[in-house]
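Q: What residues go here?
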């Protein structure tokens, strides 16, 4: 939603496709390195392209760092990237949300993100990747609701 409003949908499409390819690989599909390469390229400097005058710029920029870590982990990058960096980047992005979010029982998005991470860890431990995938779909919708509130 934020990318659409900022006129960045064309660049975000390959990024989303890359994230979907990562999710599919976690469910047993072969990882498409070409899709990930296109996602990495599209994500490069994407945060800087987000207009300064639009609300959510700091969040959007931090979100591109989450994507960088996810792609690096999926490609098993030779750089020293670890999953905890992605979790930290996600918390940084949520903390950068410019207003109250009112998502679930949380007022601030950073509190919601922390609860998401804790729930994800529990679901992964209990039900493996399928349970985590189901939870992620619900959380994506909740993030979408926060974005709708922000952009009106």
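A:
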């Amino acid at each position: 939603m934020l990318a659409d409003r900022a006129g960045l949908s064309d660049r975000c499409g390959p990024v989303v496709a890359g994230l979907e390819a990562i999710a599919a690989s976690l469910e047993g599909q072969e990882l498409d390195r070409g899709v990930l390469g296109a996602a990495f390229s599209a994500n490069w400097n994407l945060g800087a392209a987000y207009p300064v005058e639009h609300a959510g710029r700091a969040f959007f920029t931090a979100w591109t760092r989450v994507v960088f870590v996810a792609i690096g982990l999926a490609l098993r990058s030779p750089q020293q990237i670890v999953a905890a960096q992605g979790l930290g980047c996600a918390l940084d992005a949520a903390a950068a949300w410019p207003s109250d979010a009112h998502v679930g029982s949380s007022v601030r998005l950073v509190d919601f993100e922390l609860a998401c991470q804790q729930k994800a860890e529990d679901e992964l431990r209990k039900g493996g990747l399928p349970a985590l995938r189901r939870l992620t779909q619900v959380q994506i919708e909740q993030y979408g609701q926060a974005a709708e509130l922000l952009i009106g």
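A: Context that may help when evaluating the design: Helices lie at 2-5, 9-26, 33-43, 46-49, 57-74, 83-95, 109-151. The first helix runs from residue 2 to 5.
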